[in-house]
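Researcher: I'm preparing a figure for a lab meeting and need a structural model of a single chain. I don't have an experimental structure, so a prediction will have to do for now. The sequence is pasted below. Please return the structure as tokens so I can convert it later.
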Amino acid sequence: MQKGNIYVIYGDNPKSMILELLGKIRPEEGLPQQAKIGIKPNLVVAKPSASGATTSPELVEGIIEYFQSKGYMNICILEGSWVGDKTFRAFKICGYEKISGRYNIPLIDLQKDSYMKCLVEGTELNICSKMKEIDYLINVPVLKGHCQTNITCALKNMKG
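Model: Understood. Here is the structure written out token by token.
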């Protein structure tokens, strides 16, 4: 993958689109086969992706299929839904329980995880403990409006 490039793809089949995109950028280059890969969708609420609130399970399926086809088998899906909702409900309603069973991928509920305090450039952050076990994190956010920040993207998906 060449750094600094932006790849754009258009279509209506998320799974085939992500497979095509990953084939172009080859994110596995330099990644050891034993690496633990974490996929972080945006499942803030227990609503299907057609609502616009959550990550399409087809995108995540494509990511899993791509990496498994390259021999990467140590993959998990990590998420902690918004306060007031339950991650296990989001996993079920959004289709991630089916993905977990189909591809033998564990679902990790970060709402149930412990955390560590980390100092980052003078700011103290609470980081979920399971994240320390991940070698390669794939963030799969949803671009949407937000009442506090006007827009949410990749960085906002990593909070919570």
